[in-house]
Amino acid sequence: GKEGLGGELARPLVGERCVRHLLLASRSGLEAPGAEELRAELAAQGAEVTIVAGDVAGREAAAGIVDDRLAHLQEVAAGGGQPEGGVDEPIRPRGGDDDD
Question: By three-state DSSP, how is residue 15 classified?
Fold first, then answer.
């Protein structure tokens, strides 16, 4: 929601890094408290914001959420729901190039 970790990550991406296409995922999606307000706040700064419901704690779950949105995907930032022990390798789109 607006006051949660998603908002803390999203605001600098839009305000400081000029990200214009943003996908936010949480278990509650638009039902999360403050989600609509956060989307409106970021849209007022020029961002196209999509908020979806989904648990991104695992690689396959995260891949399922981003697969349909690969055209605009530039970066994945995970702020919550990380697997125990952290992420040992970057999450890349299927068929992605490792030569960044």
Answer: helix
